[in-house]
Amino acid sequence: MENNSIKIMLVEDHKLIRVGIKTVFDETDGYEVVAEAQNGKEAVEKASSTRPDIILLDVGLPDMNGVTVIKKLQNNEIDSKIIVLSSDESSQEVDKCLSLGVYAYVIKDINTEMLLYIVRSVNEGAMWLDPKIVPALRNKSDNIIPKKQTSRAMFRNTHANLTQREYEVLKLVVDGKSNNEIANELCISEHTAKAHVCNIIQKLVVDDRTQAAVKALKEGIV
Fold it and tell me: Residue 199 and residue 195: Cα distance in Å, rounded?
């Protein structure tokens, strides 16, 4: 296995599903499953010892829910990027997971090619939300994603005048694009794309691109 492979921990209580996902990664270059866990307690213990790049976390574990697992991982200063897996498109935990800084929320019926893409993109710092969960988020009482978008002028007045290019980059960040993909889409260099992302993070007064994407969704700009 190459040293630069993305190190992954699978947290899933159903063995058949866990084996199936592991097989996908085992048969693809650039990915390595370094640990498997079937409950939350085991997930925290193994994450502490293996320090994976990515944690694929099933929210429906037998001993604790996904939000509790995420909090325990954070309390143990495990900085792995978390991708939440769920079979419930209307999960009440979606907004809680997003507020805790997960990088992706994925419905389990996703195809293998897209799962590989999401893991790779998240490892590069991108965020990804399954399109199927957006309607549920819009209908939540706390309105994590407003039903109506704010105007472009209002958003710019509120957030330190994002340039037109930064606005375009922000939309691609929300779509889960990596810096390299943003560069290709906008026909700019990767260095320039990275600079735009850094400017956006600074102007939105957030810590990283994930928080920038979530804030953009909350403000209704995308």
Answer: 6
Dihedral sign for Cα atoms in the order 221, 208, 183, 26: negative
Kindly tell me if the per-residue pLDDT of 29 is higher than 90: yes
- CATH 1.10.10.10 intervals, the chain: 152-219
pTM, to two decimals: 0.65
**Per-residue pLDDT at 167:** 86
Q: Is the pLDDT of residue 113 over 80?
A: yes
Residues 59, 71 contacting (CB under 8 angstroms):
no
Question: Which helix (H) or strand (E) element contains residue 10?
Answer: strand 6-11
**Six-digit token pair at 131?**
């399109």
Tell me the C-alpha distance between 155 and 180, whole Å: 26
* Cβ pair 43, 57 in contact under 8 A: yes
According to CATH, the topology of domain 152-219 is: Arc Repressor Mutant, subunit A (1.10.10)
Strand order in the sheet with 81-86: 31-37, 6-11, 54-58, 81-86, 104-107, 128-129
Residue range(s) of every CATH 3.40.50.2300 domain in the chain: 6-138
Is residue 219 within 8 Å of 158, Cβ to Cβ?
yes
Mean pLDDT (whole number) for 54-77: 90
Summarize pLDDT for 167-177 with one digit per residue, the tens.
889 989 888 88
